[in-house]
Design a protein that fits this description.
Length: 294
Amino acid sequence: MTIKIWNFDTMTVFKTLSGHDHTISNVEFTFDGNFLYSASRDKTIKFWEIATGNNKKTFQGHTEWVRCISLNASGSLLVSSADDEIIIVWNAATGAQLYTLSGHENKIESVIFVKNQMSLFNIYYSEYVADFSHALTGETSQLAGENNKVNENTIRSLKNTDENTNTMIDLNKKLLEKSKMNALKDQKINKEYVISASRDKTIKIWDVFASSCIYTFIGHDNWVRSIVIHPNGKYLVSSSDDKSIRIWELKTGRCSKKLIDAHDKFVISLAFTHKYAYLASGSNDQVIKIWDCK
């Protein structure tokens, strides 16, 4: 029921944070390293000042064990998941509840904010978001303005590449991808997405501002324990008590690869090294494995 802050140079405890009344399940530093959020089985989230060790604020709203927390890219929003089967998005500074996301049918093991700009791009222009938008508005979603226009020089240059299949269908796909990439350079995706993993065997992507689930990944045969986004922003990786690791395409929602029997027991934890795109997986079989995910 304590949090210890360690000095890596001396390998000694710099500060001990006490105040939770039950098991602490997750912690997250603010980006400046001056503060820390913690999630606990006592149904609360606490906000700590590292320098003094003081608990500055306690977030209350969940009715069961809070298992996971995650900050958004700007540090302005905090998301939490719990055994009460709901996700709460908080104002990270004030502790005010802003959005409640519900739809899972069992305890939620993990939740993350999508911070990678390429990941935001892939979700925003995905097939399932287009379907979701169409369901809400009854209109077909498409890129606006100059993003849909192509000049003859672009067509000619693409026809000369080795990858071109010389069919108009494939050419149009390349042109659309190129226009989307150009749009990404000039604009920021003004959306907040969170992804959650649950004991109901599913993974869900949520549009925070719409308070809606926009897509559900289905494929695992047991509890989904951990989720991480590949550093290139194209893939979501998940692990489960079914002993597998699965790689999902963020743009299509499809499972592109399955590592069946990745471990001998439950695969409970995943982490990426962003420098080398290596994936680490931890399991109840007491083994840590390193995977090359380039």
